[in-house]
Amino acid sequence: xxxLLIGLGAGLLSGLFGIGGGIVIVPALVFLAAMAQxxxxxxxxxxxxxPVGALGAWQYYKAxxxxxxxxxxxxxxxxxxxxxxxxxxxxxxxxDLQRAFAVxxxxxxxxxxxxxx
Length: 117
Hints:
Shape: globular
Mean pLDDT: 83
Oligomer: single chain
Helix content: over 70%
Structural class: mainly alpha
Distance between the termini: 39 Å
Radius of gyration: 15 Å
Number of helices: 6
Number of strands: 0
Largest sheet: none
Low-confidence stretches: none
Order of helices and strands: HHHHHH
Number of domains: 1
């Protein structure tokens, strides 16, 4: 049930803000399910495989709020980047990976806060 609720929360936030894996699922798995950082990251990636994003993307496309060309160009980068990122993450100690993730979230949150109009 916990994993279903994490998925539901991540799905709602993904539909609202385009987020899910790193910002919602990974911390939820680490803190609520007591998973190791690497396991949480791998589990999140596994959950986000197609067709999870397809339904949300379709709704945005129908509403004219999606750039298909940009999405298609981003996809190959995601494919290669996820492969490289996974290899790097698996080489790092879990503690360092968790701290790096926390720094990433703080930097992104600060940038979003100060850039808001």
